[in-house]
Amino acid sequence: MSTRFIAMEGLDGSGGTTQIAMLKAAFEARGEPVIVTREPSDRPVGALIRDHLRRSWQDVLGDGVFPYLFAADRRDHLDCVVLPALARGENVLSDRYALSSFAYQAEAHGLDRVMRLNQDFPAPDLTIMLDLAPAMCLDRILARGSPRDRFEALDQLNTIAAGYEAAIRAVSWPIVRIDANGTPAQIAAAIAALVWPNG
Ligand code: TYD
């Protein structure tokens, strides 16, 4: 099978990081070369974004710069990580990609504008959207111990969920939604059935 670029998407708390690790293991068990990567990336622009996300969005940089930073990080991530790996014959699994920008940055900056900023980037061969209700995502986030205001956090998750819905309608890439309300093994099995439809 030819190498593939697969992106994992979903709300915070929807289980993407767990599922991407399980999908990597499934590729390895089949002897198919694979790398796992993520956005914001682990490269310099991604590190800058993560630093600001940890401190809060309104820290030193104005909010207006974020769609550009995410796009700059995506360009760098594609050029230095994703495309070279695909050229080496490795499958690439990315924990978030451009759909996250469309979902998370659209409310503040407008979906059309964010999509324009990302128009040069290739569509993944497959985008897996982990569907989980915002309230369930919040339970998982709180169980991990993040101290957050429950109402504020739920409000934010609802906004981003609406952002994902609008983004999925607007994008013409192959996106498949997976019900993420189950055990990690159940969800991994549903994802494997999608990635290897012929078993
Ligand atoms: P995430 O990997 O989920 O965080 P963590 O490493 O803490 O699990 O991603 C960090 C946050 O960045 C997440 O809330 C989504 C957000 N994000 C955007 O707002 N726009 C983007 O384009 C991307 C890739 C991520």
Summarize the structure.
This protein is of the alpha/beta class.
Describe the structure.
It is a single chain. The protein has 9 helices and 5 strands, in the order E-H-E-H-H-E-H-H-H-E-H-H-E-H. It is an alpha/beta fold and 199 residues long. The structure holds thymidine-5'-diphosphate. Residues 12, 17, 38-40, 53, 70, 95-96, 100-101, 104-105 line the site of thymidine-5'-diphosphate (TYD). The site of thymidine-5'-diphosphate has 13 residues, from helix 4.
Q: Structural class, from helix and strand content?
A: alpha/beta
Radius of gyration: 16 Å
- Describe the oligomeric state of these chains in a short phrase: single chain
Q: What is the tally of beta strands?
A: 5
Query: Which regions have little confidence, pLDDT < 50, spanning 5+ residues?
Result: none
Q: Which descriptors apply to this entry?
A:
9 helices, alpha/beta, binds thymidine-5'-diphosphate, five-stranded parallel sheet, 199 residues, 14% strand
List the helices and strands and how they pair.
Elements: E1 5-10, H1 16-29, E2 34-38, H2 44-55, H3 66-87, E3 91-95, H4 98-104, H5 106-109, H6 111-117, E4 126-131, H7 134-143, H8 150-170, E5 175-179, H9 184-195
Helix pairs in contact: 1-9, 2-3, 4-8, 7-8
The site of thymidine-5'-diphosphate has 13 residues, from helix 4.
